[in-house]
Design brief:
Layout: H1 2-10, H2 24-38, H3 42-52, H4 73-79, H5 87-105, H6 107-116, H7 118-123, H8 133-149, H9 167-179, E1 188-192, H10 206-216, E2 220-224
Parallel strand pairs: 1-2
Helix pairs in contact: 2-3, 2-5, 3-8, 5-6, 6-8
Length: 226
């Protein structure tokens, strides 16, 4: 929620504090995954990802589009996905949508429809010159990137799985987080310092911490030993 409000305020995407953007080989892995589910060229999926978010799964547009392929809530609902920030779900949905548009309108108009909307493309008779300058520039950028990527060999690397927070540790952390308050009376998040004795928490990843922060919707954080 805070990320969306901030993005609307500064009129720019809001990057993740931990994974913005993903490494290029990981972005390529998601692009290939998207190509597998949509039947598109991986280079085209990658070109759209680059144009939409630069490979940042936490990007939020001024209009509220979210994630790697900048999905609107209505598009995500049509795909049946629940976490727009999840790269796999986001790219799967975005790629399927793009694939449908490309098969319906062709590559150039399919790219335009992904940005402008299929109904809007039809309303101008499929003439790119009659579309907004933003859409014309978007199509140009994607097509140029697509052409460049077709002549490159990009490594793909699967994202590293994130270990879940152990249930006992999560419950303890949540209780402490909910009971603490800062000087202004606002709740604070207590982030544990992992040491050699806290073997149960050694697998805790930064992204898990941030998901907990977002889930609690708290403004600040401090550290202490569990």
């Amino acid at each position: 929620m805070h990320a969306l409000m901030l993005a609307m305020t500064i009129n720019a995407p809001t990057p993740s504090p931990t994974i913005s953007p993903l490494p290029s080989p990981v972005v390529q892995w998601y692009a290939q995954r998207g190509a597998d589910v949509s039947g598109l060229d991986p280079a085209l999926v990658r070109a759209v990802i680059e144009a939409e978010s630069g490979g940042d799964p936490r990007a939020v547009s001024k209009a509220g589009a979210i994630g790697m392929m900048q999905l609107a809530a209505s598009t995500a609902s049509d795909c049946g996905i629940h976490d727009l920030y999840d790269p796999a779900q986001n790219v799967d949905c975005g790629s399927r949508t793009l694939g449908y548009l490309v098969r319906r309108y062709g590559v150039q108009m399919g790219i335009a429809a992904y940005n402008f909307g299929s109904g809007d493309v039809e309303s101008v008779g499929g003439h790119l010159s009659k579309m907004p300058q933003e859409t014309q520039a978007y199509v140009k950028d994607v097509v140029e990137e697509y052409d460049a990527l077709q002549h490159e060999t990009l490594d793909a690397e699967a994202p590293q799985p994130q270990a879940p927070l152990p249930a006992v540790a999560f419950d303890a952390l949540l209780r402490k987080a909910q009971s603490g308050h800062d000087a202004l009376g606002q709740p604070e998040l207590f982030i544990p310092i992992l040491d050699e004795r806290s073997s149960a928490l050694e697998s805790l990843a930064d992204v898990t911490i941030w998901r907990l922060v977002e889930g609690l919707d708290v403004p600040s954080a401090r550290r202490f030993d569990l």
